[in-house]
Structures are given as C-alpha cells and as structure tokens.
Amino acid sequence: MKFLNKIIHELLAQNPDLSAFNIILPGKRPIVFIRQILEEKNYSGFLPNFFTIEELINTIADRQVIQGIPLWLFSFNVYRSLNLIPRDDFSDFLKWFPTLQKDWDDILKFSDSDEAVLQYMFDEERIKEWAQNLGEDDDVPRRKFLNFWQNMNIFLPELKSRLQEKNWATSGMIHEAAKASILDFAKNTQEHFVFCGFNAFTPVEEKLVRSLLKWNKAQCFFQADQYYFNDERQEAGKFLRNHKTWKEFDDNRAFQWIEDDFSQPKKIKVYEVSGNVTQTKVLPEIFKEINNKTYSNTAVVLLDENLLPASLDVMHGVDNLNITMGFPLKNLSFSNAVKRLFYLQKQLEKNKTSYYYRDVFPILEELPKSAKDGLIINDFKTKIEERNIVYISQKLLNELLGELSYFGLLQKAAGTHAYLDILIAFCHQVKWLEIDDIQYENVSHFENAFRVIKNQLTPYNIEIKMETLEILINQHINSESIDFQGEPLRGLQIMGLLETRLLNFENVILLSVNEGKLPLGNSQNTYIPFDIRRFFDLHTFLENDSIYAYHFYRLIQDAQNVHLLYNALSSGVNTGEKSRFITQIEMESSHQIEHLIIENASDPIVTKPIEISKTEIVRERLQKWKEKVSASHLTSYLYNPIDFYLSKILNTSESDEIEEELSVKNYGNLVHYSLQEVYEGLKGKVLKESDLQKSVKAIDQFINIAIEKLKHQQEFYEKGMNYIHKAIAKKVIENILNHDLDLIRQGNKLEIIDIERRFENVEFYLDGNDKISFLGFIDRIDKLNGTLRIIDYKTAKIKNLHVKIDADNVEDYFHNSDRKQALQLCIYHYVVQHLPEFWGFPIETGIWSFAEAKKGMVPLVFDKGDIDDAMRSVKSLILEILNPDIDFVESIKSY
Questions:
Q1: What DSSP state is assigned to residue 491?
Q2: 22, β-bridge pairs
Q3: Which of 487, 527, 540, 552 sits at a 20 to 30 Å CA gap from 36?
Q4: What was the pLDDT predicted at 872?
Q5: Whole-angstrom Cα distance, residue 383 to residue 663?
Q6: Strands across the sheet containing 771-784
Q7: Strand stretches in 197-290, DSSP E
C-alpha cells in the first residue's frame, strides 16, 4: 500500500504521537490497512481518529439525517397538505419523488441557491410554452412538465422548511447547513485534520478543506500522476489540476504528491471476451500467471456487481477471499419471492376466486421453509400436477396448504397494515430456521424495512394500497445491498471500483471494462437538463466521467500486472463496446499492450450414444419382464432402447408437469376415454340407429366424464386453445359415431363385443421351452357382418399397414420403428387367435386414427407373408432384447 505508507511515514515524521491527527478519508475501507502499516512500524501510541468527509460535514451541520422510506413518507405528507394539482396519490408520488430528491440534493450541494434553480426551471418551461403555443390542454407533455416545476417551486421550499423545523436534513440540506458554519468551525477548532486521497469535492467540502488549510489546521495528501496531471486533455486529472491552483498551496505548502508511477514498466493485457459471465471463466487462467499464490497483493475489480456469484464460483481454489463490495438485494431469491408475494396480492384483488399456479409455485420454491413445510409443499405440488390444475380454487388451496406455517401470506390481505404484520412475523420466524448467512442477511434487511414502513405509516394516516406498498418495497430493494465482512489483510480482494480508493495492488484484474460501465456514460437519471446543470455548475455526466477516469488510472498507475476484460457481445443494454479508457491507453500511453480474444466456444457438442450393458441384475430383470410383455414395450424399444431400459428395467417414469395447453398425449386420452364411455354402454349389443343417435346427442356428457378421468378441471377447457382442443375432440367422436351409423344405415350388422379388453398370460414360445407372456389392452373389439375386428385407436396418422414379409426380411422386418403400428396389430391378432372365446371367427385388425376419423378403421393387410411370418419377426425382436451380448444403445434422432 504505497500511498498509505507514504502518508503514515510523513505523519510520523511530523509527530510521533498520531492521536494528534484526525484522518479524513473518502471511505472507511483503508482504515484497516493503515492499522496494519502502523503495526508493521511497531507503533505503540494511540491511534488517530478516522472520519469520512461526510461524517465531518454532518458533525458541522449538526442535523439529523433523513433518507429512504422515512423521507418519502414525510415528504408525501407535506405534498398532500399543499393540495397541489394534479393531486398525485402516494404510488404516483413515489414514481417521481426519489429522482427529484436526488436532483434537489445536487442543487443544494453545488449551487448557491436551490430556489434560484427551481425558479429557473419554471421560467425555462414557461418560455418554451410561450414559444410553442401549447393551448389549454393540460395533457400535453410540455404543459404537464411546466405544471410540475410550478408545483415544485411551492413544494420543495415548504418541504425544506418542515424538515428544518424538526432539525432533519437530506444529504443536500446537510451540505447547505454546514456551509454557514464552516468558517467558524475552521477558526475555532483545536483539532488537526489530514485529508487523504481525495479527488473531486463538492463546493462545501472544498470550502471546508481550504478554510482549515488557511488556518493551518489541515494538510492534504493527493495521489496524482504526471501522466494524467500534466496533460490538460486527460480528464482523470481535471479536479486535481484545479486543486493545485488553490492559493492555499504556495511556497510554504506544496501540493502533495504528483508521482511518476504510470510510466513505469507494466504488463497490460486486454481481453476481448464473448459473453458477460464468460469473463469470469478467464480468471483461473489469469491466476496461474500470478507467482504469489496467497494473492495478497491482487485485486479483482467487478465493474458489474452482478458478476459476483459467477466470479466466486470460479475462485473455489483460492484459499482466502475477501469481498469488499455490496451485493444487490434485488438479485437474491428471498427478494424475488417478496416481489412475487406482492404481485400475487395484486392478482387476488382482481380475481378473488382462484390462484394461477405460476403465481404460487415460485413463491413456495423461493421462500425459506421448515422440513414440515417442505413436505406440505411437495404434496401440494404433486396433487396439483397430477390433476393438471392451472387455476387453483380458494377451497382447494385451503385444503392442501392450510397447514403451511406462512399460509396467511398467500391469502388475500385484509389490508396493507395487516399484511405488514404477517410479513414481519414471517421474517422473524424464518430467522430461526437453518438458513445460510446471506439469506439470513436478506431476510433481516426485509424485516427491518417492513418494521420501518409500519412504524413510519402510523403517524401520517396515509392510505396505502397493496400496489403502493409494492412500489415502496421495490424502491427499497433496488437501493439496498448486502455488505460482506471478511479478512481484508489476507488473500484475494474482490472489490467494486469505489472500494479501491487509496489502495494499491501489484496485480489488478478489472472485469466489464465496457462503455456504460466504465465510465457510466450520459445515462443520468435526472429531471434537470444538461444545459441547466452546466449553467448552475451541477455535476453532469462529464464530471462523473472524470471521476471514474481518475479512479481507473489511479488504480493501475502503481500496478505491475494489469488485466482488462470486456464483454464484446451486444445484448440488451450492452453494446459490446470496450471502454474508451482502454482505447486511450492503447493510443496515448507508451506501454506495450497484449490483446487476447477469448471465444465462448459454440461448437456443437459431440455426444456419444448412451450404452447400457446387460449385467447380471439387468438380465434378471429381463427374465421378470418376460412374464408381462406388451406391444407398447416393443414399440418403445424400437423408438429408443434406452427409453425401454429406463421405463421397463429401472421402472422409472416421467414426472408430471402442469399443461396450460392440452398435450398431444392428453388430447388422445380425452378422445379415447370419451369413446370408452360411449361404447361401454353399447357393449354386447347389435347396434341400432337409435343407439348411435342418442350417443351423438350425449357427446358432451361423455367428454365431461373423460375430463374427470383425466383429473382435469372443467375451467381448463373453457377458453383459449383448450376450448378449441375440446371442440376438435367432440368433432372426432362425432365422426366416429357417424361412421358407425352409416355402416348400419347401409345394412351392415355391427355388434360391440368388448371395450378396453384386458388380456394377460397369453404365451408365446421363443426357442424350445423358452417363452414370454403377452399382456395388454385392446381398445375395441367388434363384429362387422360376422368378422371379428380388433381396433386400436391412434392420435397419429396411419402408417405402413401393408406388410410384405418374405424369407429375406423375416428376421429383421419389425426392427424398424416405422412399422410399429403393424407390429402392434400383429401381436393383437396373435393374442385374439389364442383366446378360446374367439376361436373360429375370421379376424381383421386395424387402426382407427383420430386424425382421419372419417376413414373409419384401416385394416392391416398382408401383401406378402402371413401372421405366422409376422410373429417370427416379433420373436426375433424379443430375442434381441433378451440377448445378453447386445447392449441397450441410445437411438440418436436427427432433426
């Protein structure tokens, strides 16, 4: 820490007792390093006092700081009392006040008179209105903006007055209050102040420093470098060049210090990386180049705080890490769950009868839970997925989740105050669970915020809707971060750019060195136009760019190895453009810069098919399988042997998922179950016209029974694509009934023999005494004019029902998945032949496709060979499945 060492050396030379000094720093981060330096120097006296400059200004102003939620509520109370037009409610007020308040603080900090700036804004808008002749319509944006500034000229002075009455102040008001007391403070104080490592000052801070210098009660140590200080074009030295012109710096008091470190030899590498998170994957390679494996003199600077989790993932091999940056509260799971809770409440205000499952599931997944709650949630999800319930009724939710410890959070709130009480109780309860430290901090932040809101709301009598409470919470979430505490003197430092102030590192790695990240660019969130900011000497994006430039150059001026990574991909708000600071170094500095391009490889992944050998236990399971072989097992094997292995050998099944739109499988089931209900009532009868006509009229009833079998809700089919699917299903059933009706009208005799006929223990011999037993269901067996028809329903179209088997292809004819429909029909034919009740009847097998329902049953036809030849091919397929030397090999489908 070269700069800090230099300061301590200078102070000890002035006075061996450092307790005589008050050291003023831009932030508190360097204090621990100063203590380490003093320990290394064997300093045994009292430590100096440490302050940030904000703390010193606050001490001089002697005001109570008010910010965040308390300030918003107090300000709205003032705004409401003025009866301004338009009269915004609290939710609308929150949409503009936080931005206005930042602008107001800027005005108070940098201008001589906030009222002059406000009046100027109003006059500017009046001139624009006069020039453009906007008419009398109040909805014209220009007129609304004029009205806004007219109101602000009334509201902000009144707000300031009311805050002063209570001795409260925003950060801008603190500066304004301190301004009047600085001269007296500088003249009367007996303390000595040391200002270290500052760059840009507000006018009040500058006045304080210069006044103390004037009375010889302060000294300043700046860290400048000739590279950017002497070059007027370099924005990094803009503020320091101005400070050097202060009259307080003369022959008796030199400007300290202007160093020449940037020009010293450095190894600079610039990495063009394809992807944001991909930058973190480069870190392990960079670490390999660092000799000191404790990484005690290395800093990873994240210009995008969202990269922290990914960075930590790749640093698992680093023994000691110290995170000295905040992590945004909004990126944590509990924060997301809280947002979803408020969204759910808003939905319940619109629809009090049911819950959309996608509104409930994420909340249950993301909120911390006890073991008991976990079991309740798993049972709830299982039942909802089994029954495919998209919209969950209040009654069902009570039935399935009523025992949940935080069930009150999911019910429609009686009011915002009552809901805050439930949230506070829940946060308190969660902290007793076994949760990690980060989640504990997250929950604690929210508990504190909920308590603050509840306590602050009480005296104001402000009516808050759930939507307003949501906005209030979101404003809080977006402005808060969780601070990490670690051991800053050991290991690798992970930092934000502002945390690097006054600190120096031998190895510096910066991620996201992109335009828009470094510097932030001209995307200032403000209501005050650029030209007015310049006129009143308020900071603009240009000053902010200079501040960022200084932090960047100061950080690398003492480093020996510098690694600058940027995301070269354009996506979202990221332009994929490297920071202009990189370009400046490339073009203006004397350093040789190595450029590397890191591609995020997108080559297709070469995957080998899964192979499962038939071990002893697999062979045992196959022997067991032989007792219950169905046609669907064989078609599953044809489609993909691994699917067969997973479902028939391992007995696994796919998990249920909620369908918002009816799947092809369940569409088929809907028609299938409906037809089952239709013909179950006609079983054993020779059909008459009247039977089928009655059935056609009752189709809706049959479909409703099928929906119950599917465990679906009727509401599922009331709108959207599912309404259309149901209508199509009804048409298909109607076509099938009408086809049978036409057969009867044409003089045919049609008798329904059986529906969903179950068969089992139908033996089929392989070699010698080795045999298997067929098991399954036949969708429909009827008799048309004396011929027994075996019918299988299919959702898909009919394919390859003309069988051509000869001596050349008999062994492998059914080893083709395109012939699986014919394979299934051949097995059904064999089974029916061997059922005694059907002996002696001519047999016809066929498919009735829902996609072509009007065609009726399309029969299986043997152009070559017969059923015996077909069963030889089936036997060959079964023997292959049982063959211990043939592995189960995954079928890779090409698309």
A1: S
A2: 49, 193
A3: 552
A4: 92
A5: 19
A6: 750-765, 771-784, 787-794, 843-849, 858-859
A7: 218-221, 224-225, 258-259, 267-273
Q: Partners of 888 in the beta sheet?
A: 612
Q: Rounded distance, CA 762 to CA 834, Å?
A: 7
CA distance 427 to 447: 6
| pLDDT score of 127 more than 80 | no
Q: Amino acid letter at 467? A: E
Average pLDDT over residues 246-260: 89
Peptide bond into 519 cis (omega under 30): yes
Structure-block tokens of residue 619? 């062979």
Q: Which CATH number fits domain 616-889: 3.40.50.300, 3.10.20.600, 1.10.10.10, 3.90.320.10?
A: 3.90.320.10
Label residue 197 left, alpha or beta by phi (over 0 means left) and psi (-120 to 50 means alpha): left
Distance CA 165, CA 159 (A): 10
Tokens for 785? Answer: 């004019």
Per residue in 837-875, pLDDT (tens digit) is 888 889 999 999 999 999 999 999 999 989 999 999 999
User: Using one digit for the tens of pLDDT, what is the confidence trace for 762-821?
Assistant: 999 988 888 999 999 999 999 999 999 999 999 989 998 999 998 888 888 988 888 999
Q: Within 13 A of 182's CA, how many CA atoms are on the CB side?
A: 22
pLDDT at 879 over 90: yes
DSSP string for residues in 656-696: P---SS--HHHHHHHHHHHHHHHHHTTTTSB--HHHHHHHH
Closest among 570, 526, 556 to 544, alpha carbons compared: 526
Residues contacting 721, CB < 8 A, separation 6+: 661, 662
Interior angle at CA 469, CA 464 and CA 471, nearest 5: 125
Alpha-carbon distance 648 to 633, whole Å? Answer: 8
With bands split at pLDDT 50, 70 and 90, how would you rate the model's confidence at 711?
confident
Residue 259 β-bridge partners: 225
Between CA 640 and CA 889 the distance in angstroms is: 8
Q: Does domain 267-325+495-598 have CATH number 3.10.28.10?
A: no
DSSP secondary structure letters along 154-175: HHHHHHHHHHHHTTEE-HHHHH
Query: What H or E segment, with its residue span, contains residue 594?
Result: strand 593-598
Is the confidence at residue 606, as pLDDT, over 70?
A: no
Amino acid in position 20: A
Distance CA 64, CA 170 (A): 9
* Tens of pLDDT, residues 256-305: 889 999 889 989 999 999 888 888 999 989 988 888 878 888 899 999 88
Give the residue-averaged pLDDT of 90-119.
Answer: 90
Structure confidence at residue 893 (pLDDT): 66
Token pair of 313, please? 């993932």
DSSP state of 659: -
Question: Tokens standing for 862?
Answer: 């043997």
628-653 in b/e form (b: 16+ CB < 10 A) is ebbbebbbbbbebbbebbbebbeeee
H or E segment at 383?
A: helix 371-386
The pTM score is: 0.74
For the ranges 381-395, 643-657, 692-706, the maximum mean pLDDT occurs at: 692-706
Residue 782 — left, alpha, or beta (φ > 0 → left; ψ -120 to 50 → alpha)?
beta
What's the token pair of residue 696? Answer: 């056609």
